[in-house]
Design goal:
Number of helices: 3
Number of strands: 16
Structural class: mainly beta
Order of helices and strands: HEHEEEEEEEHEEEEEEEE
Distance between the termini: 77 Å
Shape: elongated
Largest sheet: 10 strands, antiparallel, barrel
CATH topology: Lipocalin
CATH architecture: Beta Barrel
Number of domains: 1
């Protein structure tokens, strides 16, 4: 039985080593889409009016929902457990600056802090935003956004997997050490933002975003008789609905509370329970220097 499992694993590894492109609704594609959804470079609501030279500095933290054990069986087409429950949060810093044509330029960055074996690497985002229509009551804005970067994590061979007996259901591929897997989160898209036209202390907003994603994973896992090095990628589009409230504490300080929902499709051989869609909650704080 052990020889049979080893032979199967070796065949799959050899097939994936040259690179595999999977459907976005396959178990592997869903896993990459789920992780990418956590990093989407979405806006924090209203598109503020900033003159050239004026800017906001912001910090934001969002939740990453926890998946059950069956949802994490995405390897080998839904057969093998992968540790997707790494960091429970995702954060970024942002600077929003006034630009020409009454528009806003934004630059975001996620610090390279390791949490539970996962560490962002060079996660930088960019966006350009402008109000397209405005009357006495509402403002309709458009954002173009983009993000590049990656993260490393021991997804294929996590500490729990390595601690399990070789070729047991918990360590079916024979992991003997922690893996060093790398996922790329590249994406870009457009976001429509609807908000009140006049600035008040409490400003609700809602947005719809369509993102083009092309995530990929480089696997580097030490197994008993071989070092698995494989490449898996997917591509497709994600639709996200966001809503929230901006609360102006003072003229300089703004608090943002929001939530984003991204539906995700997955084709599994057996139901896994849990919510396969991505739904997070975000909190952000922005500061604008006083002007003379």
């Amino acid at each position: 039985m052990r020889f049979l499992i080893l032979a199967l694993v070796s065949i799959v590894i050899q097939f994936k080593a040259a690179g595999e492109n999977v459907a976005i609704d396959s178990p592997e594609g869903w896993g990459m889409s789920y992780q990418t959804a956590a990093t989407l470079n979405l806006g924090d609501g209203i598109i503020p009016k900033l003159e050239v030279g004026e800017f906001y500095l912001s910090g934001e933290v969002s939740t990453i929902p926890k998946l059950n054990a069956d949802q994490q069986k995405i390897g080998f087409g839904g057969f093998k457990y992968e540790d997707l429950n790494k960091s429970p949060v995702f954060g970024r810093g942002k600077i929003s600056s006034g630009f020409y044509w009454n528009s806003i330029l934004e630059l975001t960055w996620t610090p390279s802090l390791e949490i539970n074996g996962a560490q962002p690497k060079g996660l930088w985002g960019f966006s350009w935003a402008k109000n397209l229509y405005k009357n006495d009551n509402i403002a309709l804005g458009l954002r173009y956004f983009k993000l590049n970067g990656s993260a490393t994590a021991d997804v294929t061979c996590s500490a729990d997997v390595v601690a399990a007996p070789l070729y047991s259901p918990e360590n079916i591929s024979g992991c003997i050490g922690l893996s060093s897997d790398k996922i790329n989160f590249g994406h870009n898209g457009l976001e429509l933002v609807l908000s009140p036209a006049q600035k008040t202390q409490l400003m609700p907003w809602v947005s719809y975003a369509r993102s083009n994603i092309s995530p990929s994973v480089h696997i580097d896992a030490p197994l008993e008789f071989i070092r698995e090095r494989a490449f898996v990628e997917t591509s497709g589009t994600l639709n996200s609905l966001s809503f929230g409230i901006n609360y102006f504490i003072t003229d300089q300080w703004r608090l943002n509370l929001s939530s984003s929902y991204t539906p995700l499709d997955i084709k599994r051989s057996e139901p896994a329970g849990g919510n396969d869609n991505f739904w997070n909650f975000r909190v952000g704080l922005s500061w604008k220097p006083a002007t003379n």
